Amino acid sequence: MKRYLPFILLFLSPFAFGQSPIDVDKEFAFAAQQYALMLKSHPDTTKFPQSTKPDGSPDDRTSDWWCSGFFGGSLWHIYEHTKAPVWKAAAQKWTMAVAKEQYNTGTHDLGFMLYCPFGNGYRLTKNATYPPILLTGAKSLSTRFDPKVGVIKSWNKFQNYNYPVIIDNMMNLEFLFWAAKTSGNKEFYNLSVTHADNTIKNHYRPDYSSYHVVCYNPDGTVAARKTAQGYADNSAWARGQAWGLYGFTVMYRETKDKKYLDQARHIADFYLNHPNLPADKIPYWDFNAPNIPNEERDASAGAITSSALFELSTYGGPSAKTYYQAAVKMLESLSSPAYKANLGENNNFILKHSVGHKPQKSEVDTPIVYADYYYLEALLRYDTLRRKAKS
Ligand code: GLY
Questions:
Q1: Are residues 18 and 165 in the same domain?
Q2: Any idea which positions bind substrate (predicted)?
């Protein structure tokens, strides 16, 4: 980041010296109040906050659900900003609640489940009990990489296909890079690079939008390109574009290989220049949903994209300012009453209006735990960039 500091200072100056559109302290004060209520309504650490059921009641899940790490991760975000011991204690408790998933070899989602809580917790506290749990988890995750296919398997089965890989899987690689550095085992690094290269090759269309699911044959050739959560096989499911953008930004951070930076920039440009991206920059759940503008927005995609664009903006280039300003706009929109809940409402989640799985009519226009996680992360990144620009 240091290398780009003069550049960041230059393009942040209108923001740094003008009025910030977002009051980070105020947003974290609200998040703390809302999540204090969430902690109160969730005394049992086997029931993880996830979303809202169609009848309006809280939808909780168990630790083996792919989202189990986000609540603990969000508590770490609140601790990072507030530095208050009460948040550290809560974060530790909800982090350890996911520990048994380190042995779970039946899912590719261990990056989300383990690295969001344990990774943030270790970064902030250096708790020596966390790395062994993370490293066991990284080994479990890497059992899903078949070198003959060259990608980490996402689900065990999708329709008639036995090796489906979803774009979301790019989000696991940050965890594996950490594992490579911590253990000295280069395999974690190598398999991440192979997975990312095959994802560029097979998941992306010429316009840099992404398929959701690529189904592989045992020899690594592509059997089919599909969607599960998007509108259509050929559509651009909004959260999938966000996962890819975030994932390739991390690839550049970890490898410094320019091809990943180019990929992230192309994805960002597809997203930001899309004619169906609304003025508030929070996308519809699918860029090609059939009834736009009468389709649900996906606040989670907006939050993930905002966070990713803040990082991408630090890597310079002619669009850095555009990425930064778009990330701020997204954060501003999410912090407005259009998306942010009132205290004590929304089953104590921070953000409203996400879409989990529209084709299955699941989590449509509801709060979802990962929208809050990436929103808080984006707030932290915004705060860090502004502080750097001022200092
Ligand atoms: N990883 C699943 C999703 O983004 O909904």
A1: yes
A2: 109, 168, 227, 239, 243
